[in-house]
Amino acid sequence: MIKTTSFIRQNFLEFFKEKKHKIYPGSSLVLENDPTLLFVNAGMNQFKNIFLGYQFTKNKRISTIQHCIRTGGKHNDLKNVGYTNRHHTFFEMLGNFSFGSYFKEKSIIYAWELLTSKKWFGIDQDRLSVTIYENDIESFHIWKNIIGLSDNKIIKMKDKKNLLYTSKNFWKMGKYGPCGPCTEIFYNYKEKNKKFLEIWNIVFMQYNALPNKIYKKLKTPSVDTGMGLERIASILQGVKSNYKIDIFKNIIKNIKKLNIIKKNNNQSLRVISDHIRSSSFIIANNILPSNENRGYILRKIIRRAILHGRNIGINKCFFYKLVPILIKFMGSENKILIKNKNKIEKILKIEELKFSETLKKGLKILKNEIINIKNNILDGEIVFYLYDTLGFPIDLTKEFCKEKNIIIDKISLKEKIKKQKENSVNKIKTKINGISLPKIKKNIFVGYKNFKKNSLIKLLYVKKKIVSIIKNKEKGQIIIEKTPFYPESGGQIGDSGVIKSKTGKFIVCNTKKYGKFIIHNGYMDYGYIIKNDLITAKINLKKRKLIEKNHTATHLLNSALKKILGKNVIQKGSLINDKKIRFDFTYFKSLTFKKIYKIEKFVNKVIQKNIKIKYNLKKFKEAKNKKFTFLKNKIYKKIVRTISIKSFSKELCKGTHVKKTGKIFLFKIVNEKSISFGIRRIEALTYKKAFSKIKKQEKDIQKIKKIINSNDCYYIKKIKNILIENKKLFKKNKNINKKYIYLISKKISKKVIKINNNYFLLYQFKNEKKNNLKYIIDELQKKFQSIIIILINFSKKINFLIKISKNLTKIIQAKKLLLFMFKKIKGKGGGNIYISEGILYKSNSIKKEIILFKEFIISKLKKL
Ligand code: SER
To answer: Is the minimum distance from the CB of 476 to ligand 1 under 6 angstroms?
Structure first.
């Protein structure tokens, strides 16, 4: 009997259940509390703190099936995926863990029993060999004397010369963290020539790796084991590649069935079938494609799969179509995919559509280049052009070239990248928005501390031209030597205020940065201003103070979002003015009332603590290491300004802020919505505006109470009761109406006339409800099989309804009858063969016309 992956998962857990292990679910792929990890890469990750002794567990024996991603950090297999039989970006790790319960002997005995016992996996013992850490005498002894392996089947793996714990058999989770010697079990699937496949790694967690090569002994030595499901399945199913086990075989078979493939390339099929697994699971774990961190890795995987799709001739959007196939074949591990199916499909589709155009252009250029290539070396300049101009990722060009055995000229590529960096630094823009910038020293911002400053006019513009004077009432721009005006940046709007000289007053409406210059936009209120004038520049301080409250609150909001919604939340834009805060961020669903409450609570708590804001200048690298938040897409200078509000918020920022958080007084979110896929927007108020908003809500409640005549705190209950009562009345009304319809139909059915074998009714109402006409017709139709009904209702308008029984429509249709009627009586309307409706225009002769029309139909019916 073939052992399916579902069976193997189950069998593994059953074995360890029998050995008194508690079965735990695998963790999410993203561990929020471990910033050292991009994605979970081993079963032991979720237990890191237990291994280190920071966390207690009452279960000392645990077993799990853990989803793992190995595409970044210490364990990165992305480049190999597709080109080998064994590598995956996503795989399942079967693991058993002991936290001070058993150690080396039992863990080895368990592994051996599960692998070789006929009751369990039943692998031939002769096919297995092991490796151990060279100085691990205890493991050697167990393998040799307890298990009974011969010496030549126990291979000792040494450290690199003079470098402690560098052996392959010394396992580390990352640079730092729990680690220890390990023993690995290998399967030899070629009897004669020997070809070994590692199947199980048993790690003896004994140390905590700290910086400076310090290895601290752990108090409780523990065991962490991991066996890749796909590998063991390949052995138990007797196939030589992971990609031939049931899951992959089925996925690949079904990709082919989609009938979109023109070229059968195994590498590409492997890449696609692997990547649909990793990308779907990553999205299911709430990561969206983006240009940073986990989102970037996700994007890279999706794009790589799409590239390989194009490679085998798929020219339309296909990747998302594989999601249902994946769900079908992932067995019991598919629950999270089912739950997130729509989201995964939608994201994959959007991502592929977005990327398709770039890919099309890039591939065309690449293919043309390759026709003329010399020595199979692709010029770095082309790679750079594709990247710089088209946004075609360098990684993908590399991938494309790898496929075709072409090498990229790395030297010319590096040179191009270096040159471009230099250019962008040296490039000084001389004209921005039509304004020519002078070759003078840049002006200086002094507005962190000064709100009023005596300074000197350096340059004046009117209608974007440099001038020597701005005259009365003229609009213009001013550059002064030192300015207290903050120029719009980092979401904070620019200051407004006045620039006064002895001869005039210039109103500054806003301040912006043009290249290196701070420029004040505005108009002459009175008098004039001349170049080199001495002036006093004074900002609108009241407005600035309001902006500052909003800016500091924005930092706190940013921290709150990360704290409450998770570290993946990334700022996508902000607007901070004197009226409100607008903050855009990545998140995939709307925030619940509870979440919003928690965010507000966090921000207001920090406000109440009245914490002093601290500013510092730091090296960018240092700030980054110290975990200050910054925008990933922005280029920062070497020295940056950091703003900290104790540990509550740490950000790089040039903006202006309150001195102490208490100044913000109050923070209130007033709106939360989606602005595009995966991006949400919060709008919030601070200080008096926040208070007014709350007061306004209170006032609204008062109004509601007054309307429903309830002064007490039971008004919600009263509203509920009103709604219940309303529902009841509605139901009652409906029943009464039903009765009414029945009675009125009965009454007017007496007016139905029989002509030959058919029936006919034209009935005129006065002020009947429009909807009732339909119900009445339905009721009448129940009684007469073969009938033409025309109901006309004289109310504000004259509306009518025509209905014809199905069998009669062969002879006359409702829509035709309506058109016919309009020839006799003016009106408008439409319909189909069974029913038509509309209005008739009022006229003095309408009653007469209706009678004539009625007679006409009767005469027609008589002729049938
Ligand atoms: N943590 C070890 C590994 O990943 C054993 O699970 O290989």
So the answer is: no
